[in-house]
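User: Can you recover a sequence for this backbone? Please restate the input before giving your answer.

Assistant: Of course. Working from this structure:
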C-alpha cells in the first residue's frame, strides 16, 4: 500500500457519509409528506364516524391523525369525540391543550371556544387521589393505569375518565400492592397505598439467583505485537466495513419503500384516472417508488465500494475472505 492509502480511505468514507445524508434527507421529506396525507385521510374518516355516533372507532382515528400531523383543528375534533363518548377527563385535557395551541397561533376564536368547553367540563370530572403512607420507602414506585406517579402527585386530586382504574406500588424487598377502583360520575375517589410489608429474608434468599461464574475475570491475552503493524490496510478495512454498513441501510430503506409503493399502487387501483383518496394514494405510490430507487442506487454503490475497499485492504493470503464472517447476518438481524 502507498502512503496515500489512509487519505484515500478517508475520502471514500466522506463520500459515503455524504450520500447517506442526501438519502436520509430525501427519505425524511417523503415521510413527512406521507404523514400529512395520512393525517388528512384519518381526520376525514374520524369525522365521518363521529357523525355516525361510532365514537369507539372515531376517537382512535382522530388521535392518530393528530399524532401524524399535530394540528389544532384535529385536536379540537378529538376533544369533541372524547366528550361525546363520555371520556370527560380526556376531553378536558384535549380542550386545554387546544386552547394553549390556539393562543400560540393567534387564533382567538378557537382559544376562547376551547377554554369555555374546558371550564364547562371541569365540575363534571371524576377525580382520583392516591395517598401514600410511606413515601420515603427505598425504591418505591407508585403506578396508576400504567403511568408512574412522582411524589408531587401524591395526595392530589387528578381528573380521570369514568371506568376502572388500577393503582399499584412496588419496592425492592417488599410485597407489592394493587387496588382496582371504579370512577362514576363526578365523584372523588381515594386510594391509600399502605407501607409495603417486607419480604421475609428466607423467601428473598431462596428466590435470589446464584452468583455467576467469574471465569471472565481472567486477564485478557495481550495483543499480538505483529497485528498492530497494519497501517493503511487497517484504515481501508475500517472504511470498507463502514461503507458496507451504510449501503446495507440504503438497501433496507429501498426495500421498504419499494414494497410500500406496490401496496399503495394496489390500493389506489387506478387503471386510467384517479380522484379523491385513490389519487392521493397513487401520488404516495409514486413518491415511495422514487425514494426506493434512490435508496437502492445509493445503497448498492456504497455496498460495492465498501466491499472493494475491504478486499483491497486484505492481505494477499486472506484476500479470498472478502468480508468478516457473519457480517451479513448481523445486518439482516438488526433490521
Amino acid at each position: 500500500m502507498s502512503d496515500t492509502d489512509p487519505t484515500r480511505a478517508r475520502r471514500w468514507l466522506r463520500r459515503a457519509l455524504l450520500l447517506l445524508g442526501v438519502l436520509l434527507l430525501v427519505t425524511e421529506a417523503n415521510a413527512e409528506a406521507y404523514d400529512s396525507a395520512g393525517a388528512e385521510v384519518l381526520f376525514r374518516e374520524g369525522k365521518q364516524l363521529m357523525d355516525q355516533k361510532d365514537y369507539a372507532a372515531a376517537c382512535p382515528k382522530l388521535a392518530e391523525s393528530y399524532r401524524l400531523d399535530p394540528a389544532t383543528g384535529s385536536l379540537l375534533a378529538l376533544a369533541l369525540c372524547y366528550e361525546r363518548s363520555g371520556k370527560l377527563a380526556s376531553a378536558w385535557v384535549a380542550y386545554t391543550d387546544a386552547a394553549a395551541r390556539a393562543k400560540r397561533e393567534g387564533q382567538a376564536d378557537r382559544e376562547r371556544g376551547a377554554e369555555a368547553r374546558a371550564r364547562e367540563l371541569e365540575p363534571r370530572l371524576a377525580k382520583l387521589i392516591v395517598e401514600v403512607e410511606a413515601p420515603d420507602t427505598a425504591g418505591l414506585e407508585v403506578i396508576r393505569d400504567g403511568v408512574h406517579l412522582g411524589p408531587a402527585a401524591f395526595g392530589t386530586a387528578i381528573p380521570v375518565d369514568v371506568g376502572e382504574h388500577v393503582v399499584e406500588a412496588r419496592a425492592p424487598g417488599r410485597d407489592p400492592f394493587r387496588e382496582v377502583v371504579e370512577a362514576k360520575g363526578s365523584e372523588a375517589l381515594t386510594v391509600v397505598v399502605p407501607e409495603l410489608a417486607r419480604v421475609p429474608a428466607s423467601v428473598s434468599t431462596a428466590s435470589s439467583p446464584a452468583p455467576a461464574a467469574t471465569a471472565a475475570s481472567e486477564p485478557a491475552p495481550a495483543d499480538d505485537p505483529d497485528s498492530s503493524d497494519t497501517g493503511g490496510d487497517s484504515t481501508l478495512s475500517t472504511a470498507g466495513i463502514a461503507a458496507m454498513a451504510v449501503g446495507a441501510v440504503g438497501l433496507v430503506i429501498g426495500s421498504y419503500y419499494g414494497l410500500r409503493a406496490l401496496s399503495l399502487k394496489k390500493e389506489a387501483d387506478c387503471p386510467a384516472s384517479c380522484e379523491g383518496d385513490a389519487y392521493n394514494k397513487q401520488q404516495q405510490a409514486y413518491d415511495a417508488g422514487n425514494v426506493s430507487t434512490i435508496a437502492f442506487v445509493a445503497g448498492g454503490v456504497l455496498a460495492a465500494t465498501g466491499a472493494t475497499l475491504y478486499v483491497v485492504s486484505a492481505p494477499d493470503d486472506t484476500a479470498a475472505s472478502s468480508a468478516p464472517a457473519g457480517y451479513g447476518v448481523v445486518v439482516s438481524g438488526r433490521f
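That completes the design. The domain at 40-123 is CATH 1.25.40.10 (Serine Threonine Protein Phosphatase 5, Tetratricopeptide repeat).
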